[in-house]
Amino acid sequence: MLLMLAKRHTLQPLKSILMVSKCVLTLAWHHNLLARSIINYQEVAVAFETFLRTKGLRVTNPRRDILRIAWGSPEHFTADQMYAWVLEDDADASRATVYRTLALLSEADFLSTLNDGKGTVLYEKNLGGDSHHDHMICLSCRKIIEFVSADIERIQDEVALLHKFKLITHTLRLEGLCVSCR
Q1: 133 CB neighbour count, 10 Å cutoff
Q2: Which residues are within 8 A (CB) of 57 and not within 5 positions of it... i.e. 6 or more apart?
Q3: How much is the CA Rg of the chain, to the nearest whole Å?
């Protein structure tokens, strides 16, 4: 089929078709990795580099460093915390590079975002697969408690079915006061 397209069109449209095909294949491959629960940093690094190239962006050492640091974090973090970690790590990345790279990692679904209720965006690595969880956020100290509830999952599925709604994903954030702040 591509040969037929090459005969009928100039090289530029063919390049566009190949780029779109590559993008679709890359995204399918990436989502397959997420469905398998990515926990291997090397797989994540390769998938992120492929994502960047597909978007026509360069794979740079600062972007690699930010991914490595983000993937190594066991906790939620802000862009400013990431910037501080980058400086501690002696990685060569500006604050703007940190913000742009975190946005790219979120766009590619390698990081999930969460608003803490006070206007701060928090990031956490997205392990895909069955790693879904919800959050309780203390409005006083901003402590985040992650939890999984089979009852909540069941109820949301029932509500979606009741409304003939095809549920893809959900985000649940409960806000209140933790034990320490009551």
Answers
A1: 14
A2: 104
A3: 20
CATH code of residue 168: 3.30.1490.190
How many angstroms separate the CA atoms of 173 and 164, rounded?
24
Tokens 């501690």 map to which residue? 88
Is the same domain home to 65 and 151?
no
Residue among 88, 111, 90 nearest 99 (CA): 111
Alpha-carbon distances of 131 from 64, 71, 112, 166, rounded to whole Å: 24, 15, 12, 20
Tokens of 5: 């397209």
Mean pLDDT per 10-residue segment, the chain (182 residues): 36 39 41 48 90 95 94 91 94 93 93 83 77 82 85 91 88 89 94
The pTM assigned to this predicted structure is: 0.65
Sign of CA dihedral 171, 76, 145, 131: positive
Q: Tell me how far apart the alpha carbons of residues 53 and 45 are, in angstroms, rounded to a whole number.
A: 12
